[in-house]
Amino acid sequence: MTASLDFIAWPVTTKRLTLRRLTEGDLESTWSYRKLPEVTEWITAGPKDFETYRKQFLESGKINRDIAVELSDGQGGSRLIGTVMVYIKDAWGQREVAEQAKAVEAELGWSFDPEFAGRGYATEAVKAAMKLCFEDLGLRRIVAGCFAANEPSARLMERVGMRRESFEKAISLHRSGQWVDSYSYAMLKEEWAG
């Protein structure tokens, strides 16, 4: 059986957050913070206008792989404060065992509204996504990466227990036109402490 976010009993709750599948209805909520320069600086796509963002949002597969992170507003409602991507993918395997390497790892990524920074919400959400990957989906490995200058993301990966596996010099082309350094992090299921 192939691992899929479709197999999770949504929503998933943590101490302070609710995680659920991203929907088309989240378009404007995610745009409200992803358009901010301090967020756009680090994310994969930084469209300049809402219509371009809408098109990319609907065509990119975000709805199939992103998890909405909501915080209760204390009034019985909630507010979307970020997303965590869980992109399930194949590991590399030699031809004779390639079938056994299908859908056994996930790449994680995230973006959060800076208004909610510094309160541990991203850490809580990413740990919950890791739990889904290892405990619910039975994946063997998770990976994540960031530009080396994106210190908050690097610190987050270290806070959740991921190990830095590489530092790559001038490997990533940033939309500024500069080639920049990147880090990659990972964790194996047997390293997961829960």
TrEMBL record:
SUPFAM superfamilies: Acyl-CoA N-acyltransferases (Nat). Keywords: Transferase. Gene3D superfamilies: 3.40.630.30. InterPro entries: Acyl_CoA_acyltransferase, GNAT_dom, N-acetyltransferase. The keyword Transferase applies. The keyword Transferase applies. One of its GO terms (molecular function) is acyltransferase activity, transferring groups other than amino-acyl groups. Residues 17-190 form the N-acetyltransferase domain. It comes from the Bacteria. This is N-acetyltransferase. It comes from Glutamicibacter mishrai.
